[in-house]
Amino acid sequence: MISQTARRTLPTVFLVLTAAGCSVGEEPGRGPVALDVRPLSGATAFSHADAVRLHDREERAVAACMSSRGQKYTVQPRTASARNEETNPYGLLTQRKATQDGYGIVGEYLYRLSAPAPADEPRKGAWQAALTGTPAHQVSLRLPDGVSLHYSTDGCVARARAEVYGADWNTVEPLTVGLANRVMGAVETDPGYRAAVRRWSACMTKAGHPAKDLQAPRKAIDSRLRKAASDQEALRTLGSDEILTARADADCQADTGLSETVRDVQRAVEKRLLTADDRKTVASYVADKRKALAAGAA
């Protein structure tokens, strides 16, 4: 829950960060399209508008299923801004986005202050069983990235996902995400990628923002946010520091050709790792996603 103190800091900090270039709206980072490398040719990526539309359809399907079982379920709004879809999974960053929104950390915090809180539902045994299913119908999947997934096919969540995307979605979707994670893991351990990150790290140190890896600057800002959240002056300072760090980050990525290296390494990794069956899984995922989007637009 967001404290009243934090809410009172919103109007002033909003104005300060917007003036500094930190967008807190739902579409940060507008500008020229840069090299945005993502696993599986971006198969698992959604635009913000598509993500919201499909989320709403899933929620309505869950509510209808729960109602048919005599259970109340309040449709939950999607509270995240467009940053979730726009953030590159490798941490690649353009100068345009860095200047407007930094890493999106303070901007997302401010955005969520004004987002509606999710409804608090009664989570008794019968209600939970109707929503997520029962042990008797549990399915276990071992994903390509080593993660084990368990879900029950008789729950309203699983049935809503199958209704919106297709009968195989509860299997195809996690398998494809697992493949994307496996590709990313292989890219990030590749010698060519690591050499590029070392060049970027040296550039960041020279720019006055030492960082060993691409997530380090984000973690540093995020750790400061926990302390600054209830202090208007500290939050304003953090927003400015975030943008300065992100701009240096984007400059160093451009100067060291990091995104081009990620593209080349990922291409080689996918050629080496992905089997014919893997590619069929990804193709099924893409087909299901397209059908769901087309049905939603009809």
TrEMBL record:
Superkingdom of the source species: Bacteria
Name assigned to this protein: Lipoprotein
